[in-house]
Amino acid sequence: MKKTEWNLGRLLASVFKYCTLIGAVIAMVLPLIVVVFGGFKEGQEFRRTGPLVLPENFFNFENYVTAFVKGKMVQGFGMTVIILVASLIGAIIIGTMISYALHRFDFKLKQFILLLFMLATLIPAITTQVATFQLIYKLGLYNNLLAPILLYMGTDIIAVYIFMQFLDNISYSLDEAAMIEGAGYFKIYTKIILPLLKPAIATVVIIKGVAIYNDFYIPFLYIPDHPVLSTALFRFKGPFAAKWEIICAGIVIIIIPTLIGFLGLQKHIYNGLTSGSVK
């Protein structure tokens, strides 16, 4: 009797697990299907048909051309790449240096700084936007590409913790051996620590890169005259109506680079996260 109940419990647990997974897949895939279908529909067709109705012509690329040309997607790609590359380089340098200092050195305010980092994660970013905007404006960086770059370069607490987890796996003996050979702290950082942090750097680059690539709020607020990919589609949203079929086509254009990058680098994401969590 107990064995039967145990088997029934396992069966119910398996059914619940797979039902949950199927529900999650549907919740993730269904919006993508709606967007892809909408991108191939004409304006009248989009309005008179349901979101899951197949388009009449899968070779109708007019919406994609309109989104790419009138939405200035080429300019948006250029702006996005500039901001993305500069922000990631700065964030990686700052994050690895902070992690190296906090992990390898003992000083009086070390625990206090770690506590401040932990408290910073509890403060919603939206509550500091007024002060941040005033600071950017007074520095003369409003409507300047340096504004989003500096904001994205700001210390990423999650990245710091990922780097520190990886540093747990790097032996102190490497530092000591380098010091015996006459290497200074900066040389140890550049020649030993930084190369050994490549898996963690790849993980942070992918996670932070996707977040910067998809961000709408900061570019829309701080550089309104310099459209990036996430704000370029806003041109098709008017006060009385929106050209949703063109917006759908633009969303597909924006998704494609992210999808390719994720599929090509997903091994680094999984390996980086799991390696950084095991000592």
Instruction: Please bin the fraction of helical residues.
Output: over 70%
SS-based structural class?
Answer: mainly alpha
- The total number of structural domains is 2
Q: Please provide the ordered H/E string of secondary-structure elements.
A: HHHHHHHHHHHHHH
Q: Which spans have pLDDT < 50 for at least 5 consecutive residues?
A: none
Between the first and last Cα atoms, what is the distance in angstroms? Answer: 43 Å
Radius of gyration: 24 Å
Kindly identify the CATH topology of the largest domain. MetI-like fold
Please tell me the overall pLDDT. Answer: 83
- Please report which band the strand proportion falls in: under 5%, 5-15%, 15-25%, 25-35%, 35-45% or over 45%: under 5%
Shape: globular
CATH architecture title of the largest domain: Orthogonal Bundle
CATH class descriptor name of the largest domain: Mainly Alpha
Major beta-sheet overview = none
Number of helices, where a helix is a run of at least 4 consecutive DSSP H or I residues? 14
The CATH superfamily label of the largest domain reads MetI-like
Quantity of strands, as a count: 0
Write the layout of secondary structure elements.
Elements: H1 2-39, H2 43-48, H3 62-69, H4 73-104, H5 110-120, H6 129-138, H7 146-153, H8 157-167, H9 172-180, H10 185-196, H11 198-214, H12 217-222, H13 229-232, H14 244-276
Describe the structure.
The chain has 279 residues and is mainly alpha-helical. It folds into two domains: 47 residues; 205 residues, MetI-like fold, CATH 1.10.3720. Helices cover 73% and strands 0% of the residues. Helix 3 crosses helix 14.
